[in-house]
From TrEMBL:
Xref: CDD domains: ComA-like_MBL-fold
Residue ranges crossing the lipid bilayer per the database entry: 29-58, 65-86, 252-271, 278-296, 328-361, 381-399, 411-434, 440-457, 469-490, 496-513
Gene3D superfamilies: Ribonuclease Z/Hydroxyacylglutathione hydrolase-like
Domain Metallo-beta-lactamase span(s) in chain numbering: 531-721
Subcellular location(s) of the protein: Cell membrane
Organism: Nocardioides marinisabuli
Topology of this chain in the membrane: Multi-pass membrane protein
Higher taxonomy: Bacteria, Bacillati, Actinomycetota, Actinomycetes, Propionibacteriales
Protein name from the UniProt record: Competence protein ComEC
A cellular component annotation (GO) from this entry: plasma membrane
Keyword field: Cell membrane, Membrane, Transmembrane, Transmembrane helix
Amino acid sequence: MILGRPSADAEEPTAPGADLRMTLVGAAAWAGGLLGSLAPATALALTALVGGAGVGLLHRRARRGASLTGALLLVVLLAVGLGAILRDEQVGHGPLADLAAERAVVRVVATITGDPRPLTGPYADGVWLRASVREVEGRGSAHTLRAPVLVLAPPEWGEVPLGATVVADGRLGAADGDDLAALLHATGAPQVRDPPDLWWRGAGAVRQSLRDSVAHRPAPERVLVPALVDGDDVGLDPAVADDFRATGLTHLLAVSGTNLTLVVGSLLWLARGAGVRGRWLLLVGAAGIVGFVLLARTEPSVLRAAVMGAVALVALGTDGARRGPRTLGVAVTGLLLVQPGLAVSAGFALSVLATAGIMLLAPGWRDALARWLPRWLAEAVAVPAAAQLACTPVVAGLSGQVSLVAVAANLLAAPVVGPATVVGLAGGLVGLVVPALGRVLGTVATWCVGWIVAVAERGAALPAAAVDWGTGVVALALLSALSLLVAVLAPRLLSRPVPTLLLCLVTGLVVVVRPPSAAFAPAGWVVVVCDVGQGDAVVLRAGEGSAVVVDVGPDPVAVDTCLDDLGVEHVPLVVLTHFHADHVDGLEGVLAGRRVDRVVTSPLLDPPEAVETVAGLAASAGAEAGVASYAATERVGQVTLQTLWPTMGTPRRGPGDGSTANDQSVVLLAEVGGVRVLLPGDLEPPGQAALGRALPALDVDVLKVPHHGSRHQDLDLLTSLGADLALVPVGADNDYGHPDPGLLAALEGAGAQVLRTDTDGALAVVVRDGAATGVSRR
């Protein structure tokens, strides 16, 4: 990427002001979107109080620059805020949402807006896709509207092309997502009323040709080439996605502004070579942008990426250093006026911040490095470093981690991203005419992608590829302040080779050398609750070097480290109480370097993506897979387990969104070393109450507190168990308010000693003088 250089008049005193004004307008639009989405009552009050005053000020003082800017900021803020309120009202409180709240059976006329994706897993079939409902009939009424829905449908829907208008029957349900009005559980095949337009059929043909051009190549390369070109990542191995996430390469798995910059930039290069000049080049660029959007689909994320890519193209052009930030402000304002909901989208924030970082930080960093490095190398280092720093607080807020290898990984991957994208697209286009040549080009693209996969795998395997960082307000505020400090000090540091190289050396040592940590394995331990953040991972000692693991937490590294500390090499049984990420995403860490015999799960196979991942990992490890059997009792080494819940024993699918998974958690009564332990997963109050009615005399020594100490509990059950120890696995600085102080007080009032992983670290139960005693790392 070549950063724009200032033109001869870049030093004019009016230029910085003009750029700053449009940047401020974009910031005001963003603030309005946040206000309207998160605090609509406040936004409405502001609109009523100062909206008219802002318009009047704009009208009366249009000739005064400062007044004009201030009035424009106010008007834009209120316009986007009001738009966000209206959008929320339309999507979340319209007739479709009302019918969804009643779980009504309806007939809809809808336009397909997203490609069908398979609902895969051992007991799953069918597809899911996005659609826009135009008409709905149900409960004796009919409505004409425009509302987005997520459709869970039978396999027949997999043949419906994007852009088609269909008539379908089904039952509505509540949606899990602010951008959806409802969830439609479709029944039967849809009736296609109108086929897609010509341009949609053409884009679909190119996407299929692209998949065909790499179909003969091994995974994951054959999946990643379409993902790079148009965001089609169906079939991607979750382990590969985790590697990309750990190394800061996730942006390559989705449609981003980089994709558009590469594709349209290549198109403009070819046009210039063919003699196209002047305004005709603008026409070629516009056609390229439209074609890219059609190929990658007109979803909000794609439109956002197209706009950010167009901004990047402006920054690459003549006088880009001055025009780029101004264009970014205009783009942000325009996007938020059209789609106010983007204000609370993490993808939007990452796109804007990355583009701003490249425009505002990278030129100075490049110039500083160019004092002692070749200019091309200085630029190659500055661009990913600036983008990564700008996005760091948001990435940490989403993942709870800060990647230490992201800049290096992006630097190593950068040389082949362009060739992989452009050659991959060429393979899809050429394959429409000459399939054999398309496969040749597809093979070349997969070779390039193979290097990116290797970078991700090697980087993620490093001992400290990423460091844990809290997601609380204080932690993120501190990280934001540190990022700003680095942005200010970086040019001075980077201009000097010795401190720069020393910093790189220290960072490299931190990444490749595992920091020393004190192993937590108290003598006589029988139960350990691992400190895995906001999630559950419980270890029951089954013998020397052997343990039963109940849930595995959200982080493979954390649970792997915990088992290493305990010296666990053999896991005869893993029980996953339900399929939420905070209980199953760490499974790969348990399987790493250990012999695992069986994996047992809840009979409720939902959400389907997690079910598929667990099944794949168990199969790859050669572990037997099954579901928990109600009332079954078995002995595993020194551990005796009895399944108390759920009462169903036949595997079945859920609604697809995981909303009912908690109350179908596997509840275990374990006995190890003479200590009775209740492990209730995330069982909700209705399930707890039913368990209490079924087992009114249940008595235990240790209680693993359900659902990380949520305030939604059946206190009658939990305080009647007679537990001496109550162990709470919970993440520090979590956003859920866990654990609830009232719950902790009730447990202590019932005579239990309460220990929690967020303040006490890993927790252990040891047997001393015949009694269970709690021990913590801290």
